[in-house]
């Protein structure tokens, strides 16, 4: 009797489980565009196949782009990664991305960030980071720190950015003289960490000086340089958002590093707060850093304010140096591969700054113009670089029961259907949005800065979103663009970069000159194998952008 009961219970349980699984796999999200799914694995097997077709260490966005193309470039694409991951909608249309990122009655500050992404980045940015906060808390933090990233305020740091840029030039002199290969990402990371230290903390980290990377160097700046470097190393080779219990040792190391970073920052915050109180008591001095601006109206530094402030500093120090370093490395790579673009950049700089490209003269002219110098072509180069090489996408979660939906439209703007996204993770994949042929045409995958200067065919604002859009756009985007413009102005006329290894230009066997790529209308040089990105928190060139540099001929 007991055996019969157990068999019956097993059959009943199996039937219920089977029906539940069929519903989850084939019915729950059947209204969303998707590839055929498997009862047991969902889309996991298919995702694995597309990942294998790329490089094993390539960023997963490259697989998403291929899957999206195979699906016919639908406005969005559903992927069922259960039970390993969350069911997710990958957004490839700027029109859908705009609906998600903008303010709405349901989500006044746009939908909240993905919890899995937040957990993964918590050790880098802190649990109270503006990146992960939501609602009124986020509004308060944004209001507090907005003044420190305003364009007019950042213009007061032009001299500091140029000073750090001159040190960068000195590094290039040495590398050119020795004809040695180096990681450009490594070099630009030190430059941008130097700059963000000045803007956020008004501290001279000396990140471009080798002795500050010595383990025996005890200054706060040197400690932060080493600790952030070690933290980034802990994210190397992590191609997917795995649950913490699958990587417990890595999580433990990240946690220990986070505590050490916070300890250093707490000392800085306490000292800066005391200086501000002294200043308010009678001594002169205006706030010069993002930190000073955020503390000037705080009479008492409570533990909660201290923790929150340190988390914002961690966020700004990381995001403020990492993405700009990646941007600069890709800019110089694209200039090295597109001779007409490089020529146009140099022509613009000659017309703005004069023909003398010596560092001192360029520095003086840039400082003289301040923030009023118009660089339309260089700005277009920056925009095109960020279009083809966005540092990161954004993940949002649509809480179950919110009844949040998006509308798809035909090419004529007529509403086609309404798609409910309740309970889903939504990933705005900039690599897909930025290469949509409906917006960018036949040259969607080509580097064409001139597209941003064509007033007769304007590109929709929402189709370019490297800093995301809506109320939660990147607070530091003005700083990133300012840095890039000034560094390009200092470097582009003075040096030629030559890619080494992956992505290197093919040379003619007889003449030794670069071979023109016939597939790009003669606009770029041919490479033996395309350079690709991997994931190390953000999207980075897989080889760190291995380069050589020489004085421009």
Automatic annotation (TrEMBL):
<dbReference type="GO" id="GO:0004497">
    <property type="term" value="F:monooxygenase activity"/>
</dbReference>
<dbReference type="GO" id="GO:0005506">
    <property type="term" value="F:iron ion binding"/>
</dbReference>
<dbReference type="InterPro" id="IPR050121">
    <property type="entry name" value="Cytochrome_P450_monoxygenase"/>
</dbReference>
<dbReference type="GO" id="GO:0020037">
    <property type="term" value="F:heme binding"/>
</dbReference>
<keyword id="KW-0349">Heme</keyword>
<dbReference type="InterPro" id="IPR002401">
    <property type="entry name" value="Cyt_P450_E_grp-I"/>
</dbReference>
<keyword id="KW-0479">Metal-binding</keyword>
<dbReference type="InterPro" id="IPR036396">
    <property type="entry name" value="Cyt_P450_sf"/>
</dbReference>
<protein>
    <submittedName>
        <fullName>Cytochrome P450</fullName>
    </submittedName>
</protein>
<dbReference type="InterPro" id="IPR001128">
    <property type="entry name" value="Cyt_P450"/>
</dbReference>
<dbReference type="GO" id="GO:0016705">
    <property type="term" value="F:oxidoreductase activity, acting on paired donors, with incorporation or reduction of molecular oxygen"/>
</dbReference>
<keyword id="KW-0408">Iron</keyword>
<dbReference type="Pfam" id="PF00067">
    <property type="entry name" value="p450"/>
</dbReference>
<feature type="binding site" description="axial binding residue">
    <location>
        <position position="474"/>
    </location>
    <ligand>
        <name>heme</name>
    </ligand>
</feature>
């Amino acid at each position: 009797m007991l055996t019969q009961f157990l068999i019956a219970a097993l059959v009943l349980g199996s039937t219920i489980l089977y029906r539940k699984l069929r519903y989850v796999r084939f019915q729950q999200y059947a209204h969303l565009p998707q590839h055929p799914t498997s009862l047991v694995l969902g889309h996991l097997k298919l995702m694995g196949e597309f990942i294998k077709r790329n490089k094993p260490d390539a960023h997963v966005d490259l697989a998403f782009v291929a899957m999206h193309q195979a699906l016919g470039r639908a406005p969005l694409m559903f992927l069922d990664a259960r039970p390993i991951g969350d069911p997710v909608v990958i957004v490839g249309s700027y029109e859908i991305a705009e609906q998600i990122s903008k303010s709405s009655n349901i989500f006044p500050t746009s939908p909240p960030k993905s919890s899995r992404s937040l957990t993964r980045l918590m050790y880098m940015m802190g649990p109270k980071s503006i990146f992960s906060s939501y609602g009124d808390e986020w509004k308060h933090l944004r209001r507090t720190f907005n003044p420190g990233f305003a364009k007019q305020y950042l213009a007061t740091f032009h001299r500091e950015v140029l000073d750090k840029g001159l040190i960068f030039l000195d590094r290039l002199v040495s590398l050119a003289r020795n004809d040695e290969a180096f990681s450009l990402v490594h070099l630009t990371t030190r430059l941008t960490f130097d700059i963000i230290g000045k803007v956020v903390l008004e501290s001279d980290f000396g990140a471009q000086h080798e002795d500050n990377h010595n383990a025996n160097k005890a200054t706060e700046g040197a400690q932060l340089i080493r600790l952030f470097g070690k933290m980034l190393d802990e994210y190397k080779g992590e191609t997917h958002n795995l649950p913490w219990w699958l990587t417990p040792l890595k999580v433990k190391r990240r946690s220990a590093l986070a505590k050490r970073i916070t300890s250093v920052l707490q000392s800085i915050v306490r000292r800066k707060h005391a200086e501000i109180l002294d200043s308010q008591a009678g001594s002169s001095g205006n706030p010069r850093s993002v930190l000073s601006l955020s503390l000037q109206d705080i009479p008492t530094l409570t533990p909660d304010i201290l923790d929150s402030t340190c988390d914002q500093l961690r966020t700004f120090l990381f995001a403020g140096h990492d993405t700009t370093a990646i941007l600069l490395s890709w800019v110089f790579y694209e200039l090295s591969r597109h001779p007409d673009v490089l020529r146009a950049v140099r022509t613009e700089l000659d017309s703005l700054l004069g023909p003398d490209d010596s560092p001192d003269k360029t520095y003086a002219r840039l400082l003289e113009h301040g923030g009023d110098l118009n660089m339309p072509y260089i700005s277009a180069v920056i925009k095109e670089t960020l279009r083809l090489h966005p540092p990161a996408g954004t993940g949002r979660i649509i809480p179950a029961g919110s009844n949040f939906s998006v509308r798809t439209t035909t090419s004529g703007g007529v509403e086609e259907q309404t798609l409910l996204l309740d309970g889903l993770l939504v990933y705005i994949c900039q690599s897909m949005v930025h290469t949509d042929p409906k917006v960018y045409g036949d040259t969607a995958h080509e580097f064409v800065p001139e597209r941003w200067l064509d007033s007769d065919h304007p590109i929709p604002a929402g189709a370019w979103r490297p800093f995301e859009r809506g109320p939660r756009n990147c607070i530091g985007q003005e700083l990133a663009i300012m840095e890039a413009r000034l560094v390009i102005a200092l470097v582009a006329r003075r040096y030629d970069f030559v890619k080494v290894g992956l992505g290197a230009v093919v040379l003619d066997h007889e003449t030794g000159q670069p071979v023109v790529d016939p597939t790009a209308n003669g606009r770029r040089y041919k490479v033996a194998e395309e350079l690709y990105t991997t994931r190390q928190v953000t999207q980075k060139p897989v080889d760190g952008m291995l380069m050589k540099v020489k004085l421009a001929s």
